[in-house]
């Protein structure tokens, strides 16, 4: 009797284990069916998530722009233009270039013009650290006999700078999300699509970084354009070389003689070449003169 009970119990346990294994198999098959469509939908999810990340980042950027504007130090690009009249152009130019280096600046462009033998003028374009801008202008004006023009202006780029930083943060957030998508991508098509989007975003990031760096440089250094004018009478030097008086005299005599011979030759050619015509003109003139003289005599006899 005990053996039968043990046997029935053993059969019951077998049925129980077989039922559990079938249920787990069904669950695994259902999970596999659910996983497949999720894998097929990666591409569309990636695009949707990318758009959401961009929208979220842009919204966050807009919300923080005002705070950043308040927290960021004003970024102003300064320009200055000076027209100076100086005693000695070369001395003033050299002194200004040395002062630019002393204040930590550098020369961008330099031009010198000479109008005839009297007026000398030139232009210097310099980049001076913004913190030394006012001090440099005061120092340079000391080189002038007369300040003809002084113009200082500034361009506030704080808003543009803060906007660039906000856009850069947004693009970096998109870049991070695309890198996560790339790690989870299973299909080659999805990988290529994400790679293309990532390349575009990274290119935009580099452009934004370049623009931000440009504004940083422009605000860190101010542009100063200086025009220098010098009124000076230039005394010519006495010529020390041989004047070649005798050679120049012989040359002038030969040229005069050649001119005279050329004139005589031309007159000879004209007279003898046109001799028939000239004879006719002379004969006609003589005939006309005789006729006029004859009529004058007749008129005188009638009056008598």
Describe this structure in words.
With 304 residues, this protein is an alpha+beta fold. The chain has a domain at 64-233. The protein is built from 8 helices and 5 strands, in the order ααβαββαβααβαα. It has helices spanning 2-40, 42-71, 89-102, 133-141, 158-184, 188-220, 245-273, 275-303, and strands spanning 76-85, 106-115, 119-129, 146-156, 221-231. Strands 2-3-5-1-4 form a 5-stranded mixed sheet. A hairpin with a 3-residue loop joins strand 2 and strand 3. Helix 2 (42-71) packs antiparallel against helix 5. The longest helix is centred in the first third of the chain and has 39 residues, at 2-40. The chain is elongated and about 180 Å long. Keywords: Coiled coil, Membrane, Transmembrane, Transmembrane helix. Residues 171-218 form a coiled coil. It holds the Pfam family DUF4349. The chain crosses the membrane at residues 259-292. Residues 74-286 form the DUF4349 domain.
Give the helix/strand layout:
Blueprint: H1 2-40, H2 42-71, E1 76-85, H3 89-102, E2 106-115, E3 119-129, H4 133-141, E4 146-156, H5 158-184, H6 188-220, E5 221-231, H7 245-273, H8 275-303
Parallel strand pairs: 1-5
Antiparallel strand pairs: 1-4, 2-3, 3-5
Helix pairs in contact: 2-5, 5-6
How would you summarize this macromolecular structure in one to three sentences?
This protein is of the alpha+beta class and 304 residues long. The protein is 69% helix and 17% strand. The chain has a domain at 64-233.
């Amino acid at each position: 009797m005990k053996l039968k009970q043990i046997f029935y119990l053993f059969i019951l346990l077998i049925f129980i284990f077989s039922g559990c294994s079938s249920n787990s198999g069904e669950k695994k098959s259902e999970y596999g069916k659910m996983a497949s469509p999720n894998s097929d939908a990666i591409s569309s999810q990636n695009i949707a998530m990318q758009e959401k990340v961009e929208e979220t980042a842009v919204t966050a950027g807009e919300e923080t722009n005002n705070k950043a504007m308040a927290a960021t130090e004003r970024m102003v690009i300064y320009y200055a233009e000076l027209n100076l009249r100086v005693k000695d152009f070369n001395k003033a130019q050299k002194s200004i270039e040395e002062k630019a280096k002393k204040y930590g600046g550098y020369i961008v462009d330099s031009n010198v013009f000479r109008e005839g033998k009297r007026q000398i003028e030139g232009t210097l374009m310099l980049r001076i650290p913004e913190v030394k801008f006012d001090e440099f202008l005061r120092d340079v004006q000391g080189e002038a006999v007369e300040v003809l023009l002084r113009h200082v202006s500034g361009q506030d780029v704080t808003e543009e700078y803060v906007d660039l930083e906000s856009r850069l943060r947004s693009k970096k957030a998109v870049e991070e999300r695309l890198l996560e998508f790339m790690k989870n991508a299973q299909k080659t098509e999805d990988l290529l699509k994400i790679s293309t989007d990532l390349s575009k975003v990274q290119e935009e990031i580099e452009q934004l970084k370049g623009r931000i760096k440009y504004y940083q440089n422009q605000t860190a250094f101010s542009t100063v354009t200086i025009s220098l004018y010098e009124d000076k009478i230039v005394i010519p030097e006495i010529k020390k070389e041989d004047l070649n008086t005798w050679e120049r005299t012989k040359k002038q005599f030969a040229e005069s003689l050649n001119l005279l011979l050329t004139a005589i030759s031309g007159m000879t050619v004209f007279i003898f070449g046109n001799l028939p015509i000239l004879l006719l003109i002379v004969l006609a003139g003589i005939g006309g003169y005789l006729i006029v003289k004859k009529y004058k005599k007749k008129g005188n006899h009638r009056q008598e």
